Amino acid sequence: MQYKTLAPETLSGVFNRRLFWWLNTLLVHGYKSMLSCEKLYDTDKKLSSGLLSSELQDTWDHCNQTNPRSLIFACYSVFKWPALGGVFPRLCLIGLKYAQPFLTNTIIRFLEEPSSNTSANKGYGLIGATGLIYIGIAVSTGYYKHKTYRLITMLRGALVSMIYTKTLSLAPGVTTEQAPVTLMSTDVDGIAGAFQGLHDIWASLLEVGIGLWLLKRELGISSVVPVVFTIGKLNSDVLPYLSMPLGSKAVVPLACTISTIRISKLMGRRQATWNKAVQQRVAITSSALGSMKSVKLMGLTERLSADIQRLRVAELDVSKKFRMLVVWINVTCL
Questions:
Q1: What's 87's DSSP letter?
Q2: Given 3-state DSSP classes, what are the helix, strand and coil percentages for the chain, each rounded to the nearest 5?
Q3: Confidence of residue 218 (pLDDT cuts 50, 70, 90)
């Protein structure tokens, strides 16, 4: 009886979890009929917003809240083990990706060899190795992505619950109605979006290092040439720059650096203006949804819809200024 309330994922074994086999029943229900809340699985207790927000709130209360990075330290203290859960499958993915060139070389050598009594066994072995590598890539990718999105779900639930609890404890008039709504939607979504590439940051550096080592292993000193072409972008557009005097060469990176710094200073203000526009639109939309019956009785549905659409267009216009800065940042980095 005590296990009936647990989520199927919690009761699943290793292979069941890695292959997401426990989702099949839900997918079949969704194919045959409309899904309702009663048919959905119970949430894993480790994803419970109540428990996570309580733990994060306790850590936050003991932090030095005057430090602008205190929230980062508090989140790291609470979610460090869920965050590290995706490291092992990401390492497996790196290993399997770089096993592909070795497999290709082995297959080429096998095809070049004359036929013998063991050729059939070697061929079957290579077929099995190919299957293992590509199945492993699929499983490890799903595994580390699953761990990443579990972390995002935990972080989002804890932050939203903590904001909501803090809002209830504030005296009336201390903050506007729009601020908590924006924090729980736009700002939390921004934080969650940033965590999607959490394991790709360190893994990319490791992959670059392994890739350069493999190039050197295969090409020797000649591997420097593709590296120069890749990093320095040694093409027809950059050749005139390389032929410039040394003093003139220093002007280009210096100008790009100064431009990047100046643009970065503007991004904070543009982002704040954009968030303010989002806050206004979300607050009016939330208020309208809470008073929908009154809006319909007074016949203001079309007027309210037009106002919300106008706010959305205004929000997009404001966001263009921020997005243009992002474009210029990318241009200067080229």
A1: H
A2: 80, 0, 20
A3: confident
Give Cα separations from 246 to 49, 249, 251 (angstroms): 58, 5, 9
CB 160 within 8 A of CB 200: no
Instruction: List pLDDT tens digits, range 169-191.
Output: 776 665 665 666 667 777 788 78
Cα→Cα distances 208→55, 202, 215, 237, Å: 38, 10, 11, 25
Backbone angles phi, psi at 59, to 5 degrees: -65, -40
Please answer whether residues 203 and 94 qualify as being in contact, where contact means their C-beta atoms are separated by less than 8 angstroms: yes
Cα 228 to Cα 142: distance, rounded to the nearest angstrom: 34
Name the more confident of 44 and 52. Answer: 52
Do 285 and 308 touch, CB atoms closer than 8 A?
A: yes
Please name the residue ranges forming H helices in the chain: 8-11, 14-18, 24-32, 49-61, 70-84, 87-112, 119-169, 178-182, 188-194, 198-219, 224-232, 239-242, 246-290, 292-297, 301-333
The predicted model scores a pTM of 0.74
Answer whether 61's CB lies under 8 Å from 53's CB: no
Q: How far apart are CA 149 and CA 86, in angstroms?
A: 10
- Return left, alpha or beta for 6; rule: phi > 0 is left, psi -120 to 50 is alpha, else beta: beta
Q: Is 127 left (phi over 0), alpha (psi -120 to 50) or beta?
A: alpha
7-21, 57-71, 139-153, 316-330: which is most confident: 139-153
Q: How many CB atoms lie within 10 A of CB 95?
A: 14
